[in-house]
Amino acid sequence: MSQPLLQIEGLRTVFRSSVGEIAAVDGVDLAVPRGRTLGIVGESGCGKSMLSLSVMRLVPPPGRIAAGRVMLEGRNLLELSPAGMREVRGSRVAMIFQEPMTSLNPVHSIGRQITEAMRAHDKTASAAELRDRAIEALKRVRIPAPERRFDDYPHQLSGGMRQRVMIAMALACRPALLIADEPTTALDVTVQAQILDLLRELQAETGMSIILITHDLGVVAEMADEVAVMYAGRVIERAAATDIFASPQHPYTLGLLGSIPRLDEDRERLLAIEGAVPPPFALPKGCRFHPRCPFAIEACKAAQPALEQIAPDHLAACIRAPVEQAVELVA
Amino acid sequence: MSATTAETAVPTRPSALRLLLREPAAAASLAIVALAVLCAVFAPWLAPHDPYETNLVAIMQPPGGDYLLGTDGQGRDMLSRMLYGLRVTLGMGALSLAFGGVLGVLIGFAAAYYRRVDNLLMRLMDILLSFPAILFGLAIAAIFGPGIPSVVLALAVATVPLMARIARSAAITVLGLDYIEAARAQGMGDARLIWKHLAPNCLSPILVFATLRFGQVILLGSALSFLGLGAQPPVAELGAMASQGRTFLFFAPHISVLPCLVIFVVVLAFNVLGDALRDALDPRLRI
């Protein structure tokens, strides 16, 4: 296999606070191959959004990236100058956000905002040329009558339309990687499906890679080629999407899958994972999941398990994996 | 497919203006401000006499007769002098507001955007804020000598910290919004981000404050001239005219009272207009 488009190694993002440094992202390794989709799943506060902001180097202060490498197309983004990084943002890596209602500037027309995004990376194009390209971009995200929509203001568009505009803006400069941070969470289900379809079609057209951040396992199942499950700032399981759903190996993943309602099974109640994600300043010793884990043993409290291969292309950070054995022991 | 909802309506100029005019007091104040500005701009064409021409046989004439609003102690036409005086007074106000306002907005944006300099800049503003504007006027007149440039400088310096505070707080609110982060994620540079995304969304509080401040600056400028630190004789300026007339207050009160009345009406109009603008530009008050 050729070199992946994006390779994250040992990434650590910390926040300075009154109780010392808190790691929101704590030693994450990930890779995104060209033209593929990586789904990052986890509960709120597990560090998945901070991970994506770290890739963009947009971690808000007092946060900072403390260690690691973010290799994009062979370059370490963390070593670029601020100007060099600005050049990458938007043109090589683009991002779309959760809230299409507030991610557009209310005082500018959408056409102007798209041309602005293009202008940031193309200082020479004429205004007419940019207008044509912006209309082209609106057409690409299947917005009807783009010439007329060009001069519309964000408040004149519905949520789904706005998210399409955001995607048009993000893809305006043909990035190689699109980071979608909960792109459909704020939309209703039917619109959600349309947006996901659109992303898939655009991926097929442009060959871009996608990092899809979500807590919705249904979205991941539909979209992702590979899945990384995060818990308390760390990746605890990584595998192909089909493997994650067929044979989850980390007890946390198992718990997540158990908490989705299903129509094809007759179940009295959903399984909930006991307790809550520990706050990052009070992480338990050893495995961070052990206080909530039904399979925890004494050894889990001793040391933090590393992400290890437990099957071909399947990594999990659990000393009790493969989990089938543990299930048998409990039963 | 149009999904326009009331709560997401953006403040566009026509609707804000319409809202403004719906209020009778606001419409009246806007008319007074417009009239004052027109009088000031077209003073040379409107004035029936030369404002500096003395007529020693017709001094301290009461209003009516040959001179519509009477004459002052040197027999100069009051109406002409007030038209020219309005020009100087409004000009001083506009210049000092422009200098102080622009510098204040830049400092406020810089403090909000580059948080490392925030504390330094805003504490400097606090220091400036601790001096009364009149004191600046005295100090600057002592250094550069009394005159209109000194008044403009003093009022500009006094306006900077106030405007910086308004701009900073508006900018901090806007900088927390998602579209700023989205613009950063597009690789937009600082200058573009501030100019295209930050500034337009901070406009309404700045505009409201500038209007209110204009009234205050006129009053302060007239006060400094009244104290003899601003416009020097024979220059026609409303504050200076009020000052010169006070010697004759018992024989010819109109010489002092008329300029004071103009100051009063114009300042009041700016204050009412500022309040009305705030209401009209506030999207939450939109029905």
Structure, explained:
- In chain A, α3 crosses α4 and α6 packs parallel to α7 (189-206).
- In chain A, the strands form 2 sheets. Chain A has an 8-stranded mixed sheet, with helices on both faces. A 4-stranded antiparallel sheet of chain A has the order 2-1-4-5.
- Chain A has 331 residues and is of the alpha/beta class.
- Helix content of chain A is 31%, strand content 23%.
- With 287 residues, chain B is an all-alpha fold.
- Chain B has a single domain (23-43, 74-281), classed as MetI-like fold (Orthogonal Bundle), CATH 1.10.3720.
- Helices cover 71% and strands 0% of the residues of chain B.
- Chain B contains 12 helices and no strands.
- The chains are: A alpha/beta (331), B mainly alpha (287).
- The A-B interface holds A 56, 58, 61, 86-91, 94-95, 97, 99, 101-108, 116-117, 120-121, 144, 153-158, 161, 166, 169-170 and B 1-5, 8-10, 115, 177-179, 181-189, 192, 196-197, 200-201.
Q: What kind of sheet is the major sheet of chain B? A: none
Structural class of chain A: alpha/beta
Task: Count the E strands of chain A.
Answer: 12
The level of helicity of chain B is: over 70%
Radius of gyration of chain B: 22 Å
| First-to-last CA distance of chain A | 41 Å
* CATH architecture verdict of the largest domain in chain A: 3-Layer(aba) Sandwich
Kindly report the spatial arrangement of strands forming the biggest sheet of chain A: 6-7-8-3-9-10-12-11
Question: pLDDT under 50 segments of chain B (min length 5)?
Answer: 1-13
- The SSE string of chain A, one letter per element, is EEEHEEHEHHHHEHEHEEHHEEH
> How large, in whole angstroms, is the Cα Rg of chain A?
21 Å
Overall geometry of chain B: elongated
Mean pLDDT of chain A: 85
Instruction: Give the C-level CATH assignment of the largest domain in chain A.
Output: Alpha Beta
**Main interface by residue count:** A-B, 36 and 26 residues
Q: How large a portion of the residues of chain B is in β-strands, by DSSP E? A: under 5%
Instruction: Give the second-level CATH assignment, the architecture of chain B.
Output: Orthogonal Bundle
